[in-house]
Structures are given as C-alpha cells and as structure tokens.
Amino acid sequence: MYFDGASHKEGAGAGVVFVTSEGEVLPYSFTLTQNCSNNVAEYQALIFGLEMAVDTKQRHLKVYGDSQLVINQLLGLYEVKKPELLPYHNYAKRLMGW
To answer: How far, in whole angstroms, is CA 63 from its chain's centroid?
Structure first.
C-alpha cells in the first residue's frame, strides 16, 4: 500500500494505492473536509489505507509513504511532539496491531 497526503491554503487531500499480489492497481483519492497541516493529511491517508486493509482482513501489508515524519514516528524513531498529531498516531498504531 502506498499513501500520500497534501495540504495547501485552499484545502487538503489524500490518496492510497493498493497493489494486489496479482499486480492489480487499486487507486483511491479523497478530499479532506477540514483545513489541516500536511502531516495531518499524511496521517489521514495512512489511516484510510489501514482501515481498508483491516476491513478486508489483510494481515500482511507492506506500507510505503514519503513522509519521513509519519513513518519514523510510527517506527518509534521520532517522538510525536505536536499534540495535534497524537490522536492520529495512536489510531494508526492501533490499526497496525489489529
């Protein structure tokens, strides 16, 4: 699963792409309804993808993203310093451990 989020002054969006074991590409994109930081958009993209994986009972999933902050926070290499990221971080961790 690949995930990415983006934010600018006029809005934010996120996308997720699943590649099946048969090589089928399943892209999803969505507009975020709240104005948010790029890091929140990244977390929301990841969470959307993880929720889909849980819903379809995908137990083994390789996850790729370009946000060093999000990835390293989830790996425990970076501390979550911004309070607004903590709920997203905690929820993503729960989804990863389902």
So the answer is: 9
First to last CA, the chain: 17
Residue 75 structural domain:
2-96
Identify the three-state secondary structure at position 58.
Answer: coil
Cα–Cα distance measured from residue 19 to residue 14, given in angstroms and rounded to the nearest whole number: 17
The pTM of the whole model exceeds 0.85:
yes
CA–CA dist 46, 63 (Å, integer): 9
Domain count, the chain: 1
Please, what is the angle between helix 38-55 and helix 86-96, to 10°? 20
Which tens digit of pLDDT belongs to each residue from 66-81?
A: 999 999 999 999 999 9
Structure token digits, residue 91: 């929820």
We report the CATH number of the domain holding residue 89 as 3.30.420.10
pLDDT band of residue 98 (cuts 50, 70, 90) is low
Hey, what amino acid is at 14? A
